[in-house]
Specification:
- This protein has 12 helices and 18 strands.
- The protein is of the alpha+beta class.
- Bound molecules: adenosine-5'-diphosphate and magnesium ion.
């Protein structure tokens, strides 16, 4: 029985933990939170901070791990690469993991390889002369933490006067205190999920995304299929494949966000070297493409043959449980609602819980997942469920 170590044991990693269990692997997991939900389902766990590379390696060595991976969080990416490299296990090269963790370096790399339609990009830190950079910029620009996630700290800047504050806001939300400035792109947002096996890129799915209104840039939902033409979708697949190659990604999951303009230009805006969050692994890719993505990802990590066979597929749409601020009065019978609307609901709501107005991914309380014959029907089901649930939770 092979032993797999999942870095992180939170709500979204728990799906991977359960999948690995169901496949018959011995499952280990690490998380700093002693109450992490995944601890209940893994065979073995330890309370360890997942950014502590050395402590995680020590656990992996002591337990003779055969494969390591992280999912749906950027915090475990370097640690997983570190363990794989030190133990000679399948994994992403540590240097590549480091590169991908820096949005500015990623942009620079994609620009130099002419992968997408990228334009200006600058990195700033506490010592940078913001006025000097400001003179070089064409506005509007987007400012975000170099190592951000979940849309924290990202803001649009329309004029030089706003730049300094936006940079400080982003730097304050960066672990390394650095921000990136790039051209603001007016486009629709899409995502792509890929798995690299033996150096070969498999683009598993292209997803449509729904986002909040500015000034917040947080995800509200996904769907497969998208509204893109087959030609546009192949341009995306091409772009994604070239980006993965340009960055030197040799192994594992790659989640990308991109903006596509009305004249068909593709801009890659964010890359994570791990499975995407927001139910991409457990629901969106497997339902929408018929590929058991999490299983393939786990097989890849432990060096077992990877099964890309296509099973049953349909249109799928998700909606985040994104609310205005308020207090959860009473949790209705979720199973009843699932039956009534023919959807799946995954949540971490609790009675009496205070909910923040939805500004970043961290404010989300879970997901509604709807399957249907068409994307439109799936979206309607998910939206109707969300409206109903809102009513029941807060009134
Ligand atoms: N250059 C840009 N132009 C327009 N919108 C952008 C740009 N960069 C990011 N955004 C918006 O901000 C969101 C968060 O940025 P992203 O780089 O994906 O950060 P995170 O790592 O926090 O997800 C994106 O999903 C997108 O909606
Ligand atoms: Mg993103």
């Amino acid at each position: 029985m092979k032993r797999v170590l999942i870095i992180g044991a939170g709500f979204l990693q728990d799906f991977v933990i359960c999948k690995a269990k169901s496949m018959g692997y011995e499952v280990h997991t690490l998380d700093a939170d002693p109450n992490a939900i995944g601890f209940k389902h893994a065979d073995y766990h330890a309370v360890v901070n997942i950014v502590d590379e050395k402590a995680c390696l020590e656990y992996a060595k002591k337990n003779h791990i055969d494969g390591v991976l992280t999912a749906a969080t950027d915090y475990g990416v370097l640690t997983a690469a570190y363990i794989a490299q030190k133990m000679g296990l399948p994994g992403l090269k540590y240097d590549v993991a480091k590169l991908i963790k820096n949005k500015y370096l990623v942009r620079k790399c994609l620009f130099e390889h002419k992968v997408d339609d990228t334009e200006q990009a600058f990195e700033v830190n506490v010592d940078t002369d913001i006025n000097e950079i400001s003179e070089k910029l064409t506005y509007p620009v987007m400012v975000k933490p170099c190592d951000g996630s979940g849309s924290r700290g990202a803001s649009r800047v329309n004029s030089p006067e706003e730049l300094k504050n936006a940079c400080e806001y982003a730097m304050d939300r960066s672990i390394t205190h650095r921000a990136e400035i790039e051209t603001f792109i007016f486009g629709k947002e899409y995502g792509a999920e890929s798995l690299v096996v033996n150096g070969e890129v498999h683009v598993l799915g292209v997803m449509q995304k729904w986002m909040t209104e500015p000034p917040y840039y947080a995800e509200l939902g996904h769907s497969i299929p998208t509204d893109l033409s087959p030609e546009a979708e192949s341009k995306v697949i091409n772009c994604v494949t070239n980006a993965i190659k340009a960055l030197g990604v040799n192994f594992g999951s790659i989640n990308m966000d991109m903006l596509i303009t009305s004249d068909g230009k593709v801009y890659i805006i964010d890359i994570g070297a791990r499975m995407g969050g927001n139910m991409i692994g457990p629901c969106i890719v497997p339902y929408g493409t018929g590929i058991d993505y999490m299983a393939a990802m786990i097989q890849n990590a432990v060096n077992d043959p990877v099964d890309f066979s296509v099973k049953e597929q349909c249109a799928v749409a998700t909606k985040l449980l994104a609310f205005d601020s308020g207090m959860v009065n009473k949790i209705p019978d979720i199973h009843e609602i699932e039956k009534k609307f023919d959807v799946e609901i995954y949540h971490h709501l609790e009675e009496g819980m205070k909910v923040n107005e939805y500004h970043t991914n961290l404010d989300g309380c879970g997901y509604i997942v709807a399957k249907a014959d068409t994307k439109e029907n799936a979206v309607i089901k998910a939206e109707n469920t969300l409206a109903y649930l809102k009513e029941k939770l807060f009134n």
